[in-house]
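Hello, quick one for you while I still have it in my head. My current little project is about how a certain protein chain folds up. You're getting the sequence in one-letter code plus the fold written as tokens. Would you mind checking whether the tokens look sensible for this chain? Here's the protein in full, and shout if anything looks odd to you:
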Amino acid sequence: MNTPHKDQQVSLGGIPTTFRVLGADTGGRLSIVEQIIAPGALFWPHVHTDHDQVNIVLDGELGVRVGDREWTAVAGETITKPRHVPHTVWNAGTTPARILEISAPATFEDYFLALAALGPDDAARAEIQQRYGVSGVPDWTEELQERYGVRL
């Protein structure tokens, strides 16, 4: 597996993701990526068993669902996504949204790099998700797509 490098950009399902702070720079405690989410884009609803995440909205607005709570977050707001709690975000606006995503511990940058290297091989995707303690929340996807007109 390749190792990410600072300012490297990968695409996660069409979402540009740039590595800003690497785990190698923080003793493995955390990593930070910057992501740009196009209008109408929905992140795959999922849950982590091994990572906590915080998003800081830099530009635009995001629809957010964390557990049973749903809201809109705008520039300057922070979104906390603790491990074991299902979550997703989507671009609720008409312009691109830009976020910083802080993950602790830092190994999630390797997850992003592994996903970006995949083609449409679902078997490999499932193995990578299992390795990094990520599982989907399938019933949310259809519901959010219907309610908000967003797409994966």
